[in-house]
Structures are given as C-alpha cells and as structure tokens.
Amino acid sequence: MKGTQAKEKGGILSIVLIIVAVLLVLGYFNIEIKDVVEKPASQSNLAYASEVAKNAAIHFYESIKEKISSVGNTENEPSETAATE
Fold it and tell me: What are the pLDDT digits (tens) for 4-35?
C-alpha cells in the first residue's frame, strides 16, 4: 500500500508541475487564459464540449444501469420439472 500512496503523490505532483509549466509558457508568450476563454468562439467550443461530455456521461450511466438491473433480475428459483421429479 505504501507504493500506491507514493505513486499517487508523485502523480499529483507531476500534474501540478505540468500545469505550472504550461502557465509559465503561456505567460512567456503573453497569452492570457482569461482573454482566450472569454472569446465567443471559445465559449461556443466549451459549451459544445460540455454538452458532449454530459451526453456521454448520461449514455454511460444508462448502459451501466441496464447491466446492473439485468444481473439483479435473474431468477434463482428451481424449475417446475426439477421439483416434480
């Protein structure tokens, strides 16, 4: 379990370092995230991506729900022919 915790901490640390590096590179090229996100084209793209992600999550949830409910609906009662023998 110690190894797993070390990997998780290392994974989180590397993600943070990558984000910081990306922000520094954007700053070096004078690109402001706020300006990019506020542009109408970016807003449209973000809205579209959000809708796609929402629909994918709903589809995933429905498929899992169907699989789980089909497992719970199996009947374990003995058949009539086995009971009469």
Answer: 565 666 799 999 999 999 999 999 999 999 99
What does the pLDDT look like over 52-76, one tens digit per residue?
999 999 999 998 988 888 776 655 5
Please give the Cα distance from 59 to 55 (Å, whole number).
Answer: 6
Residue 39: give the domain boundaries: 32-69
- Count of domains in the chain? 2
* DSSP letter assigned to residue 29: T
* In contact, 33 and 26? CB cutoff 8 Å: yes
Name the residue with tokens 């023998």. Answer: 85
